[in-house]
Design a protein that fits this description.
Chain lengths: ~625, ~675
């Protein structure tokens, strides 16, 4: 499993065979829409056909309806009226048909492109949602987002422009070239030499502009970062009086953006007029040479007109050729980056035909469990313990000792590297995933709230919960009172990641969320004691409600939890170094005693000094 | 002319050919959606805005005028080609003289060269004018934002402000770098091609102009619908991206709560909305070119018919007639193109005007707190802080501090205690003059904070906030943020003082390790320690710790406590902390309630009084509040739920789609 990170190598150019393979795979996403593609192909042909018909008809009208005769030395022009009318109508008819088929072509190109983008987004989303924690630990959100947005967009544009439009241009180009060659090959070659220069030049320019545009994008991102940071951290900026400093930082990024945008503009400023001039040069050549031929009688006025009109309709498509061609390697690169996500396989896979035991109890056993991201440095090593239904297990240890990893193995967010984790006697790998995770709820340290209402956040794991149930859970989590004081109560919108709620409030919302899941096992991962006294108390209460009758794992340096724990596991560098009850461990000394001295004693002394009478009350009234 | 889809503002006006496919910033497109549908477009012409704009343009007057002249020359050169074609054909048809053809070709070549030169000049000049103006404007907005004080940021959301600097300026950029000149060029071009066509044959010219109303009406209809359709695609793709982003960030919760299938359904719904919106927009964008082409064909047909009629009745000279028809066949395209363009630019101008309005709105917000004209630098201070009868209102009439009197001696450590809203942070904010007092005065060593420069004030006062905001850059950069003049050694010394030295040394590149976005590669405790080092690097006499240890785990807190003890020595300090254990040893504890001082004294004194503080302190470990709801009833509800869904009930399988309320941000029609 490779990590999705900012990797410059993934931006580099691919070798041609790889490109072809990737493009083939990209196109396979368009294959289900073969009907649309077929109609598009037909539309391409008819559009090109009717596009060429107009100049053809004009030629016909001029050459047939208007006949020039030399009578008595004077040029006499005779007009056949009905022929003119027919020509006029045919012209309009051809234009209408061309317009209609062009509409079909453009719309379907867009349709297929957007539909493929839609499919890709859904595929990426689903893949991301089901990949295990191991993948997400190593992935950068920003990088994944770039792939799911920009790279998908590149693929979409490739189908639309690199595919459909490029084909159209080729058909139109070849069609007009053949006609022109047939009528006057000398002039056709002269004109097409210029056209080819335009096409090649446009490819050259597109290639030159690409790195500049990448830079522009990069500098815009940088500008955005400076801006975002300065605004989000405005209090820090102000506290240190760094407004000017930030202004300079912004200025540097803005200068770079300006420079590169300027470079891009300059390339265009040189190129665009040149292209226009080359196009006009083709017209000059046609008039000069074609005019001679007309006078010589080798070329009719109508044909000259047709040539001129061909040149006009070819202008834009030919100028875009370079850009369209460049879509191909871009799409290949984007494709590789997208498939890198889609090809990720989660190591956590549900075993086919797995069945959950009838009535789950919450009996959890770790049997010589090891876990490692990288075999050379194991995170967990030989973890052995048993948690009976309803027991309270406390995990203790310094940061990085593996506490969180132990509990993450229970709902199978990771798979063990060796040994086994059993839930009710059945290996968690033999459980249906959804069933297993229904039985295990986690209250994470950093509570993540979604941009939705409070109600939806509480019912996140159980979208079918009734209002009454949601409220009951909130009450038990000691958050109902707070919510009912809000203007919109349960319909209050939770802003960006719950920024408008305090840590304690978020934690209690998470507890309500877990309560609604009604799990058999509960994991409370909270080494923060980030909250004020009143909140701390309320969280304790909420926890008590949550723990009732469930197997509970607590990662929290709270004396209260440790004292009540049926078993305390002291972890150090991925191993259980001590286990037992609070009093036993305290007597043993060792790491437990160290941590106790450092952090917990304080709580003890506070309790004994000021609160002895209350302690009794609490013990009596808390049940 | 491709439809550029979501997030690509103004995409439908860009050509497939030449340019127009510059990258659009991804951060510009997603943030601005909150601005809604209606504010997107302003009135076409707003004299006040144009005047404001004028100030930015003024320094570039000359190149700008030159660009306009070049534009006019180009318009003439480009459209005169039609006349040359006409003359050439007419001459050739009438007397078949070869020498004239050469002459004509030469003219043509000259004209082509002139148009090349003028177009190059025009683009070159605009590149030189447009980009500096935009940079100036961005810089001005940014610097202005940095000058605005807390009160402004309390109101607005970062996302909304961001979009002013990014997408609004972006829209202006489109207008400035291509829009304005395109419009001027189009108008020139239109006038000249009309003149040329009228000159060639005024009757045929009028016939072809007759199609114009149909074009304008249908374009106006189209652009109105397209505007809406494309706006919807932008809103839709923003919703898709933000859902993706959110669920990606919350993926661990999603998996632990078994929400994968429900979320996939929801995502598909939003994704599908985007698909439908883009298809609708695609329908419109695919329609416009065919429409114009059909109208051009119609005009061409009209010209042929009318020309034929006039040739038949002899009112038109044969050679001139044929030449005119051919010239018109070329000229009609050059007549329609600018008209079509102008209609499209109309929409862009409206958007640009709305954007400009929002940009200038930011620039027009005056900072409320600025240095007084005669403000002096705060000299070296001992750290004596005095609140003299201070009142504070954030909103008129709503007081948060009431006649507060407080004196803190140099070197004293004071803890502020109280519930949320008691006024703790308000007090510390006044020391650095983040807000202006409503009444009374705050003095540092006898200097009223309003009479000293803010720069010198913040230099003497160090602040550590609850959220240790770090900037992208290296660890060292972040420590140095506290004092840009400090040497590397001083910065490392500061890190050592707070006890961060040891683990920083262990980072891959030690002090030069780059921090990931929002320093995610560090624990919150580590981030906080860097913030500490940053705060003391400038060696402030007064230190404010606002919930500085709130978010860290208890091990780190122990570490930080040791750091604090070292750091506070010899400095006046204000400590705000929820965790009472962290403040037990301070010199004085001030208990606040609703903006008033309730009691103050040392830990032991306050416990002895057995007042508010003692109550708070007890609550930390004790359970004394009664449960104010029927717990059994609540539990019964959840038990019933278990029965409702079956003891082992499969979650979500038969779940109703939504729990109502504001379902996934789709409420937008």
């Amino acid at each position: 499993m490779t990590a999705i990170a900012a990797n410059p190598a993934s931006r580099r150019r691919l070798r041609a065979p790889v490109s072809i393979l990737v493009i083939g795979r990209v196109l396979r996403f368009a294959l289900p829409y073969w009907k649309g593609l077929t109609i598009t192909a037909i539309a391409i042909l008819t559009t090109a056909g009717f596009a060429m018909a107009t100049p053809w008809l004009l030629r016909w009208a001029i050459d047939t309806a208007i006949s020039t005769e030399i009578v008595n030395g004077d040029t006499v022009i005779a007009i056949t009226g009905w022929l003119v009318a027919v020509a006029g109508l045919a012209l309009v008819g051809a234009a209408v048909l061309r317009g209609a088929s062009m509409f079909v072509q453009r719309y379907l190109a867009e349709w297929v492109g957007q539909t493929v983008a839609y499919d890709l987004r859904n595929a990426i989303y689903q893949r991301l949602q089901t990949l295990s924690f191991r993948f997400h630990d190593g992935a950068e959100t920003g990088q994944i987002m770039v792939r799911a947005t920009q790279d998908v967009e590149v693929v979409r544009m490739f189908i639309n422009f690199g595919g459909v439009q490029l084909t159209f241009t080729l058909v139109l180009g070849i069609g007009t070239l053949v006609i022109m060659l047939a009528i006057n090959w000398q002039l056709a070659l002269m004109v097409w030499a210029l056209m080819l220069i335009i096409a090649v030049r446009s490819a050259f320019v597109a290639r030159r502009l690409r790195p500049i545009w990448n830079d522009v994008q990069e500098s815009q991102a940088q500008l955005g970062t400076v801006l975002q940071e300065a605004l989000s951290g405005i209090r820090v900026v102000k506290a240190f009086g760094r407004a000017e400093f930030e202004g300079r930082k912004f200025g540097r990024a803005a200068s770079w953006l300006q420079e590169r945008s300027y470079d891009a503009s300059m390339v265009q400023a040189v190129n665009m007029p040149l292209m226009t001039m080359l196009g006009a040069a083709a017209i000059v050549v046609t008039i000069w040479y074609g005019g001679r031929e007309v006078v010589n009688g080798n070329f009719s006025v109508g044909e000259l007109t047709m040539f001129l009109m061909f040149l006009t309709i070819l202008q834009m498509p030919i100028r875009g050729v370079g850009w369209m061609v460049m879509m191909v390697p871009r799409a290949a690169t984007a494709g590789v980056r997208i498939f890198e996500i889609l090809d990720q396989e989660s190591e956590v896979q549900e075993r086919p035909g797995s069945v959950a035991p009838a009535s789950p109890q919450g009996h959890i056993r770790f049997d010589r469990v090891s876990f490692a991201y990288d075999p050379r440095s194991p995170v967990l090593d030989g973890i052995d313990f048993e948690a009976k239904p309803g027991e309270l297990i406390a995990l203790l240890g310094l940061t990085g000792s593996g506490k969180s990893t132990v509990v993450n193995l229970i709902p199978r967010f990771y798979d063990v590297s060796a040994g086994s984790v059993t839930f009710d006697g059945q290996d968690v790998r033999d459980w249906p995933l959804e069933e297993l995770r229904r039985q295990v709820a986690i209250v994470q340290q950093e509570v993540f709230l979604f941009a939705a209402t409070l109600k939806e956040n509480i019912a996140y794991g159980r979208p079918d919960a009734t209002d009454e149930e949601i409220e009951a859970a909130a009450k038990l989590a000691r958050i109902h009172n707070f919510i009912s004081r809000l203007p919109d109560q349960y319909d209050t919108w939770v802003g960006e990641r719950g920024a408008n709620f305090s840590g304690g409030q978020k934690q209690r919302i998470a507890i309500a969320r877990a309560l609604l899941m009604d799990p058999r096992a509960l994991i409370f991962d909270d080494s923060t004691s980030s909250v004020d006294a009143a909140t701390e108390f309320e969280i304790q209460q909420a926890m008590a409600a949550l723990m009732r009758g469930r197997t509970t794992f607590v990662i929290a340096h709270r004396l209260r939890s440790l004292r009540e724990a049926d078993q305390i596991l002291v972890l150090d560098q991925g191993q259980i170094v001590q286990r037992g009850k609070h009093d036993e461990l305290l007597q043993q000394g060792g790491l437990y005693r160290e941590i106790y001295e450092l952090e917990l004693r304080d709580q003890e002394s506070a309790q004994t000094s000021a609160l002895e009478p209350l302690e009794a009350v609490a013990a009596g009234g808390g049940s | 002319m491709g439809m550029m889809g979501g997030g690509m503002a103004g995409g439908w006006s860009s050509n497939l050919g030449g340019g127009g496919h510059g990258p659009r910033s991804s951060w510009a497109s997603s943030a601005s959606m909150a601005d809604g549908w209606d504010q997107e477009y302003g009135t076409l012409y707003n004299p006040r805005l144009v005047r404001r704009f004028g100030r930015y343009i003024a320094p570039h007057k000359r190149p700008l005028i030159a660009a306009i002249v070049a534009n006019a020359i180009f318009a003439v050169a480009f459209n005169i080609q039609v006349l040359v074609v006409y003359e050439a054909l007419q001459g050739a048809l009438e007397n078949g003289v070869l020498s004239q053809l050469d002459e004509i070709a030469l003219y043509f070549a000259i004209i082509v060269a002139v148009s090349w030169l003028s177009e190059f000049l025009r683009q070159w000049l605009m590149a030189n004018v447009g980009h500096p103006i935009l940079r100036r404007m961005r810089q001005d907005v940014f610097e202005h934002l940095m000058r605005l004080e807390h009160r402004f940021y309390d109101r607005g959301e970062v996302g909304a402000i961001m979009s002013r600097v990014t997408s609004d300026v972006q829209v202006l950029q489109e207008m400035l770098t291509s829009g304005v000149l395109t419009v001027i060029g189009d108008i020139f071009g239109l006038v000249i091609i009309m003149a040329v066509l009228l000159y060639i044959d005024w009757q045929l010219a009028l016939v072809s102009f007759a199609v114009l109303p149909i074009l304008i009406v249908s374009m106006a209809w189209w652009s109105k619908r397209a505007r809406r359709a494309f706006l919807e695609t932008r809103v839709a793709i923003a919703a898709v991206n933000s859902t993706l982003n959110e669920d990606l960030n919350g993926v661990r919760v999603v998996q632990s709560l078994n929400r994968e299938s429900e979320n996939a359904r929801r995502f598909d719904r939003i994704n599908n909305w985007n698909l439908r919106a883009t298809r609708r927009a695609g329908l419109l964008s695919a329609a416009i070119m065919p429409l114009v082409e059909i109208l051009i064909a119609l005009a061409t047909a009209l010209i042929i018919v009318v020309a034929a009629m006039r040739l038949t009745d002899g009112s038109l000279d044969e050679a001139a007639g044929v030449a005119a028809v051919i010239a018109f066949a070329i000229g009609i395209q050059r007549f329609f193109d600018p008209v079509r363009d102008l209609v499209l630019q109309y929409t862009m101008f409206q958007r640009a005007m709305a954007g400009a309005e929002r940009v200038f709105e930011v620039l027009d917000t005056e900072p409320e707190i600025e240095d007084m004209p005669d403000a002096h630098d705060l000299p070296d201070i001992a750290g004596h802080v005095r609140f003299d009868n201070v009142s504070l209102e954030y909103v008129d009439g709503v007081r948060v501090l009431f006649d507060l009197d407080l004196e803190v001696q140099p070197g004293e450590t004071v803890a502020l205690v109280g519930e949320t809203g008691a006024g703790k942070t308000s007090i510390t904010s006044l020391i650095t003059r983040n807000y202006e007092v409503t009444a009374g005065a705050v003095q540092i060593d006898g200097h009223d904070v309003r009479e000293v420069t803010r720069a010198s004030l913040v230099q003497r006062v160090g602040v550590v906030l609850q959220d240790p905001f770090l900037f992208s850059g290296s660890v060292l950069d972040n420590v140095m943020y506290g004092n840009l003049e400090a040497t590397r050694e001083q910065a490392i010394a500061a890190a050592r003082v707070v006890g961060a030295d040891e683990w920083i040394e262990r980072l891959p590149q030690s002090y030069d390790t780059l921090l990931a976005e929002r320093a995610q590669n560090l624990s919150i405790g580590q981030r906080q320690l860097i913030a500490f080092a940053r705060a003391i690097l400038s060696d402030p006499r007064i230190l404010i710790l606002d919930e500085a240890t709130a978010n860290v785990d208890s091990q780190t807190e122990a570490l930080i406590q040791q750091a604090i003890a070292r750091v506070l020595r010899g400095r006046t300090a204000f400590v705000i902390a929820h965790r009472l254990s962290t403040i037990r040893s301070v010199d004085r504890i001030i208990v606040l309630e609703y903006g008033r001082i309730l009691e103050q004294g040392s830990h032991d004194e306050l416990l002895a009084i057995d007042g508010h503080y003692a109550k708070l302190y007890r609550m930390m470990y004790a359970a004394q509040e009664s449960v104010e709801f029927d717990e059994d009833a609540a539990l019964a509800v959840l038990d019933n739920m278990r029965e409702r869904t079956g003891a082992n009930g499969r979650n979500g399988a038969s779940a109703s789609a939504s729990t109502g309320g504001r379902a996934p941000a789709l409420a937008l029609d």
